[in-house]
Amino acid sequence: MKKEDIYAAEIVGGASRIPAIKERIAKFFGKELSTTLNADEAVAKGCALQCAILSPAFKVREFSITDVVPYSISLKWNSAAEDGLNDCEVFPKNHAAPFSKVLTFYRKEPFTLEAYYNNLKELPYPNICIGQFLIQNVVPQE
Predict the structure, then answer these.
(1) Which PANTHER family does the record associate with it (predicted)?
(2) Which of these, 47, 88, 108, 118, is most buried using a 10 Å CB contact count?
């Protein structure tokens, strides 16, 4: 979906009181934000609806909420076999979250993984690095 396809943006929750947040969201969408809902009440009603959906005691019309990863996430690691860095995109932009994947690394010794966001231009902050992880206690398997 492109931001041009969005007719209106409604801001709710505690962040709706922060002028800088409102300004950045309005600038991103290129339109005024809608504030027709009570910011706190909308979040509380959404939570109550989600609880009712999950409860066996209530019958609620079919309704789903999907959270997504707003930026693509990749991993990079040193590869002894290829003498350099390898990387792969693990979660593409707008991938459903939460989600887990099983990745297999064929290694005989400890190594470092770095998780990072792919596109610095899309990020609202200057650092693409999510974290570095030292994988230790690697034992060769049959």
Answers:
(1) HEAT SHOCK 70 KDA PROTEIN 4 (PTHR45639:SF6), HSC70CB, ISOFORM G-RELATED (PTHR45639)
(2) 118
